[in-house]
Automatic annotation (TrEMBL):
UniProt keyword list: Signal
UniProt KW Signal keyword: yes
Name this polypeptide is given: Putative LOC102086435
Species the sequence originates in: Columba livia (Rock dove)
Signal peptide extent: 1-21
Amino acid sequence: MGGPNWCLLVGLCALVPPVTTHGGREEDVTPNTEPEELGYHLAQDGDPLRDPQHCGITFRTPSPCSPPGPPPSISRHELDHLKDLLQDTRASLRDLETAATLEDNQTRYQDVITEALPAIRGANLEFRESLENVRKELEAHVAETDHPQVAEKREKLRKDVRVVAHMLRLTSQLAHSLEATAHQLHAELSQRLRSSATHVTAVTEP
């Protein structure tokens, strides 16, 4: 049934006075008429049910002193999920606390690099100084090659090298000659020993 029709029916029921049960005359509705006499009743919790054939409007308002209803039930699955979520949150908090403690107590990489930078700068400066000294020595050596005494010393060095090389060649030749003489002497001595042994054997035999 639509909304306007329903409102019209409610209004008609409210305006029609109640009918007497014993067939008596209808009583006039006066301004002093109670709501129950007009056909509607403001019901409270615990009131008995009215006659279903009686036309009227019943308004039920909850009692302010009535106890609250039972809380909605939570399934076991939802409870387990909440417990797991709580445990995960606590574990994450512990991990954060541990990480913060380690970061406060241990030396950070930035501090290590900052401490090592002075030593690195010192080693780099020392290397540059050594390289500069080598460069100066090379420049001085190149400058000395144009001096006349350097040419004389170089020629003398070449002569000394040639003398040493000649001595090495003579020594090598002498070594080869001594080795050949030793082999020849060994062969001659071996032959004489064999001849002597043969002669002694021939003399001693009957």
